[in-house]
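Q: What would this chain look like folded?
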Amino acid sequence: MRIAIICDGVHPYVIGGMQRHTFYLTKYLSRLGVKVTLIHFNQSDLDIHKLEVFSPLERENIENIVLDFPKGDKLPGHYVRASYKYSVSCFQAIKDRIMEFDFIYTKGFSGWKLILEKRKHPEWPPVAVKFHGYEMFQKQADTKRLLQSLLLKRPVKWITLNADYVFSYGSKITDIIRNLGTKESHIIEIPAGIEKEWIRLYTPQVNSIRKFVYLGRYERRKGIEELNQAIRKLESSGLPYQFDFIGPFENHQKLPFKTVFYHGSITDNTKIRSILDTADFLVCPSWSEGMPNVILEAMARACAIIATDVGATSIMVNKNNGILIQPGKINEISNALMEAIQFSDAQILEIKLNSLELIKNELVYENILTKLLSSINQIIKK
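A: My prediction, written as structure tokens:
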């Protein structure tokens, strides 16, 4: 089988959750013997043509097509215009050989031009699209983000409705896709996952002073401002706690409390795991999400989770392994932190182990990508 993956970058050449998902998609499809034509671009100093992040065996099944992402202007909507131009380049890269492919998997806006042309050519192979979280249709943190989301909604809806198939992580993301008007038979639910190498192999610890961790950027959508306010309330409560932040934070963005620690940006997975291994709870207070890698990673290291019920978070988090809260609610975040502090050691150990078991049983990439390939096979045979 030959599959084209047209995307807006692959980790680590482009950094982001969507790009990390594309990395795993390419890696495990190639391991399963699929011939993958990967169409992407580079934003790093790495030599993207070598694809050294893949093993020699994986590279045997990967054709690498590297394009430039167009430079945008400064006017509103510049990202959408640049993305359409990029989609044109992607289409030009494969248009003369499109019948070589059995299936075409597009990410975000990268398949826009292809989907537009596909309407004239029903004989072409099936084209599917994945917009990871449909964040523009989720709750926005402020007026600026609301206006930005309005610019994205129309093209995202058009691409979604005109693709042959739409991939969803499930949960609230499927609800969004369905509400846009996509037929149920055209929605394919495949969750994100984690590699087996991430999974903790030994019994987790429980700290006498409850330890929380936040992993990510200081970004408005991530709910970090609400989290900071919640920690201020926690500090004034007098309850004992420790909070670790992993990510790039400026000095003025940091809280001045002795129990709050900032580790800066960490790209070494071993170091990230070591911090997660000593934590009790990961906190993910986002306004909108797809299916956050940070939650999967924390669960794989046996962390309990406090997260907002957005995107596909509820696939990973439930009352057995954490606390789900509503986005943008400072009181809900602080109440969840206080509730977690007052859990008994036995309760925390149980929910940490439940996180680990859920990952092992349902969210390992080797199994998920096998399911994806089975779904693609069924489509091709129609």
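Residues 143-162 form the longest helix (20 residues).
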